[in-house]
Design brief:
Layout lengths: L25 E2 L6 E2 L5 E2 L7 E8 L6 E7 L6 E6 L10 E2 L20 E10 L4 E9 L5 E10 L23 E8 L9 E10 L12 E9 L6 E6 L7 E5 L8 E8 L5 E7 L9 E8 L10 E6 L4 E3 L6 E3 L2 E5 L6 E7 L6 E6 L13 E2 L7 E8 L5 E7 L10 E7 L7 E4 L32 E4 L4 E8 L4 E8 L1
């Protein structure tokens, strides 16, 4: 969520990382006989900050699309796409129909909002397009807040179009509302009412139990009274109309965040999220899951999977950008078992832990939490995806590359046995300083505006033959979006 133009709406903020180098091939036992990590590609190479990436990829791994929080003058969701499997990217632009601005102060935008952010992107194979959802704020104390959904068709896009035309209007559908709220925007929502940290998932299965092409959007609905139940909506017509919101978390679990839908091979849905006794408590936090067997219409009681013994309190040592506890999940598409990853500082440093279902479909039997890549240095912002063949991929920031525990590298880990064992490789040759650049709004704020922000998440998307990761790093003069392919 962004807060550049919001004035008194002091919502959560965002920032970045060094110029990134090539990593040679490494021997491993998944993805391929050897893992080839390609040189990082600077997707944005901008004068202004970008961070908090989301990534969608088609089943062939050829078409990709990404969105991010954009600190250019449009103050919305930046966007680019690739038709070369992530090797090259179209010149950056932004999602149209969100804010009132473009990147040229003299050219008005096509939206009605002051700020947009928290992007989410997924490929929808039923319609052959990318679904995109962003959170949008009107920009005053009684402002409307909307989750807006649109679609992007790369076959209709003109990559040579002017940046302020977003590859041409023909490539996009008119944004529609998924959920609404009102807010005065306190950072974790306790003084406002709005949907936050949305994520999207598309059901790509075609067999019994599936709803092929159904688009799910999930979020935490902060209600202004210290509560944030998990809600979901879904669309069967590519975002034109919506069913929901449907409340997922039960009445015993009302303070939650970071909801995400995962689809099992039999069509079962899992909603994973963080929970706790209230918004500020660092005690009795946990990761949780609910289950739906009817396409998201109804959901089981919330099941607490594992405790977070020592949640990250908002900052890590030796840095100024914010970091909180995170949870992410994916389903092993071979076994049907749900795998969940989360951060916990119970060993000292923030580390990425994983748990998995002992039995697919069950919510009562789980493995003991274990560290994916044990270290004495900080790990944060995990994100998961699953390949059709059963490999589960996990990407996260990792300071193990720096003996001073300050610079951030990026690690890709993967499991081919439903999260029981893991292999890991680094995606960067050297770490980057996340405080090197600040995240300041173009033409509105000074470059030293004091906003240190790396985003709240990064991204990975998978096919059987590769994993493509997107993350914030330090470009020549600002935070940029980088893509790295491992195959």
């Amino acid at each position: 969520m962004n807060a550049r133009r919001l004035g008194p709406i002091a919502v959560a903020l965002l920032l970045g990382a060094p110029f990134l180098g090539f990593i040679p091939a490494r021997a491993a036992t998944s993805i391929g006989a050897t893992v080839q990590v390609q040189s990082p590609v600077n997707v944005t190479r901008d004068a202004f900050a970008e961070n908090e990436e989301s990534l969608g990829m088609d089943p062939t791994g050829t078409l990709l699309a990404s969105a991010w929080n954009d600190w250019n003058y449009n103050d919305g969701c930046g966007f680019s796409y690739s038709t070369t499997g992530g090797a090259t990217w179209a010149p950056k632009t932004f999602v149209p129909g969100l804010t009132k601005f473009t990147n040229d102060p003299s050219i008005p935008g096509t939206g009605s909002y002051a700020v947009a952010g928290d992007p989410a992107v997924a490929f929808n194979p039923r319609f052959g397009v990318f679904d995109v959802v962003c959170q949008s704020f009107a920009g005053n104390k009684s402002s409307g807040v909307n989750l807006l959904a649109t679609t992007f068709d790369p076959s209709l896009a003109n990559p040579a179009a002017d940046e302020n035309t977003s590859y041409g209007a023909a490539a996009w559908t008119t944004a529609t509302s998924v959920a609404t709220g009102k807010s005065n925007g306190a950072q974790k929502g306790h003084n406002g009412h709005f949907p936050d940290h949305e994520s999207i998932t598309v059901d790509t299965g075609t067999g019994p139990g599936h709803h092929f092409g159904r688009l799910y959007v999930s979020w935490a609905m902060f209600n202004g009274n210290g509560r944030s139940p998990i809600e979901v909506a879904f669309s069967d017509d590519n975002g034109s109309t919506w069913t929901g919101p449907i409340v997922v978390s039960d009445k015993a679990h009302t303070t939650n965040q970071d909801a995400r839908v995962e689809v099992a091979p039999d069509g079962t849905l899992y909603m994973t999220f963080l929970g706790g006794p209230n918004e500020t408590s660092l005690k009795d936090n946990f990761i949780a899951v609910s289950k739906s067997s009817n396409g998201g219409g109804t959901w089981s009681a919330t099941h607490e999977v594992a405790p977070i013994v020592s949640p990250t309190p908002g900052l890590l040592p030796d840095s100024n950008y914010r970091v909180f506890a995170d949870v992410t999940a994916s389903v092993d598409q071979a076994t049907g078992q749900l795998v969940m990853a989360f951060t916990d500082g119970k060993s000292g440093a923030s580390q990425v832990y994983v748990v998995h279902q002992r039995v697919s479909g069950g919510l009562s039997l789980w493995s003991t939490p274990k560290r994916v890549k044990p270290s004495t240095r900080e790990e944060f912002f995990p994100w998961m995806s699953a390949a059709p063949d059963g490999r589960v991929d996990l990407v996260f920031y990792d300071r193990a590359c720096d003996p001073n525990d300050t610079l951030n590298c990026v690690t890709l880990s993967w499991s081919s046995d439903a999260g029981v064992t893991w292999n890991s490789t680094s995606l960067l040759a050297t770490g980057f300083d996340g405080d090197q650049f600040q995240a300041c709004l173009a033409f509105v704020q000074q470059p030293d505006c004091g906003t240190f922000f790396l985003g709240d998440y990064i991204a990975v998307s998978s096919t059987d033959s590769k994993a493509v990761s997107l993350f914030t790093g330090n470009g020549p003069i600002s935070e940029d979006v980088f893509a790295v392919t491992a195959s």
